[in-house]
């Protein structure tokens, strides 16, 4: 339930309203200060509360709105229809995910393999305009025999890449026991598709003062996804970013998953949370990534997560869906004008040295 009052309500009256609302049993009351309004979110067993009686508390109460959706804090109504923003501090400056901000680019390999690979990749994606480096230290794999990531040593390499480039770091945390260790390096904690409904893990990252990128489960409905986000929000962390990475469908012969771009307008009508699209995991094939990245921008995504590897043919995981360094630079050159056209342009520009740097790195490996 949301109770709104005018921002010009006298302080004494605001205090009285807050006191009266907090007398409701088994109800948690949170104050949300907007641009023109102040809202009080009543969370808990609100079904027994009569909205008419709440309105009688004060003449300064303008509206009492019952949130019918099961996800309360994630709902658009919770923020009075206003989108939320997630601002992340990086060595290169603050970066904001949100509808009224430039497109944010996250790029890097599926997994951290060695120092040379991760730092070379970080330097190129930064020069091309990315603000965040993605790379897995711990990797959830379908087969127990597949490469599972280098773990703690990979976290150290991500820290080195951050120091060398100033890029923010996004990496996955798979276990509640690893949250503190991963959070010491990562600027954004990623919850992977297979852990979307790992509720102890969701509550654990929700208790951290770190933004969380929550990937949609392989077969999750939109409501299940938003309810997973609710666990993080309910644990006290308001900085949640939703990531669509493709869902499992009946045709897996030609693409790895099905990229559900319809979630962008649907989520805009349901939630205030920022949106990231991951075309790499969704398609599973690098040749389709540029097209779907462009489509995601046109659909209105707030951010893109793209897998990039210096030599995809030799990647230890997800090589077929990874762009080469050259192809990533080319894609960035193609995407920025579209982002500008769609009102998501940024101050990013491609330095003239980028192409020569990519060529040098490629030749040094041949």
Overall geometric form: elongated
Q: Which class do the helix and strand fractions yield?
A: alpha/beta
CATH class of the largest domain equals: Alpha Beta
Order of helical and strand elements:
EHEEHEEEEHEHEHEHEHEHEHHEHH
What does this structure look like?
It is elongated and about 70 Å long. Helix 8 links the parallel strand 12 (240-244) and strand 13 (275-277). Helix 3 runs parallel beside helix 4 (152-165). The protein starts with a strand and ends with a helix. The protein has twelve helices and 14 strands. The chain is α/β, with parallel strands linked by helices. The strands form three sheets. The chain has an eight-stranded parallel β-barrel, surrounded by six helices. It has a four-stranded antiparallel sheet with strand order 2-3-1-4. A two-stranded antiparallel ribbon has the order 5-6. The protein has helices at 11-21, 51-55, 115-128, 152-165, 179-183, 199-206, 222-234, 263-270, 279-283, 289-299, 325-341, 353-365, and strands at residues 2-6, 27-33, 37-44, 61-65, 86-90, 93-97, 104-108, 132-134, 168-172, 188-191, 212-215, 240-244, 275-277, 303-307. Mean pLDDT is 90; it is low at 362-366. The protein folds into two domains: 2-66, Alpha-Beta Plaits (2-Layer Sandwich); 86-365, Alpha-Beta Barrel (TIM Barrel), CATH 3.20.20.
């Amino acid at each position: 339930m949301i109770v709104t009052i005018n921002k010009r309500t006298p302080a004494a009256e605001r205090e009285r309203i807050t006191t009266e609302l907090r007398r409701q049993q088994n109800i948690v009351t949170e104050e949300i200060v907007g641009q023109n309004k102040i809202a009080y979110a009543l969370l808990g067993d609100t079904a027994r509360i009569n909205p008419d009686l709440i309105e009688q508390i004060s003449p300064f109460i303008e509206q009492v709105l019952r949130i019918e959706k099961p996800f309360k804090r994630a709902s658009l109504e919770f923020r009075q229809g206003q989108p939320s923003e997630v601002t992340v501090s990086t060595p290169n400056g603050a970066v904001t995910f949100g509808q009224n901000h430039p497109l944010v680019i996250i790029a890097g390999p599926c997994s951290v393999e060695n120092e040379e690979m991760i730092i070379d990749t970080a330097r190129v994606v930064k020069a091309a305009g990315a603000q965040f480096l993605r790379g897995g230290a711990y990797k959830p794999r379908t087969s127990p025999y597949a490469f599972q990531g280098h773990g703690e040593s990979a976290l150290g390499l991500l820290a080195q890449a951050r120091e060398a480039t100033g890029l923010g770091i996004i990496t996955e945390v798979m276990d509640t026991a690893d949250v503190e260790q991963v959070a010491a390096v990562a600027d954004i904690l990623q919850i992977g598709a297979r852990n979307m409904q790992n509720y102890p893990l969701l509550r654990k990252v929700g208790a951290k003062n770190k933004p969380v990128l929550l990937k949609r489960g392989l077969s999750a409905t939109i409501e299940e996804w938003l309810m997973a986000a609710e666990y993080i929000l309910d644990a006290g962390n308001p900085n949640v970013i939703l990531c669509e990475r493709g869902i499992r469908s009946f045709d897996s012969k030609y693409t790895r998953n099905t990229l559900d771009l319809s979630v962008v307008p649907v989520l805009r009508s349901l939630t205030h949370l920022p949106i990231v699209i991951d075309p790499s995991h969704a398609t599973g094939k690098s040749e389709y990534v540029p097209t779907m990245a462009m489509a995601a921008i046109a659909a209105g995504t707030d951010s893109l997560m793209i897998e990039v590897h210096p030599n995809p043919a030799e990647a230890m995981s997800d090589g077929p869906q990874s762009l080469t360094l050259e192809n990533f630079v080319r894609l960035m050159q193609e995407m920025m004008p579209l982002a500008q056209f769609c009102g998501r342009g940024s101050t990013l520009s491609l330095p003239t040295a980028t192409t020569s740097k990519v060529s040098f790195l490629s030749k040094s490996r041949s």
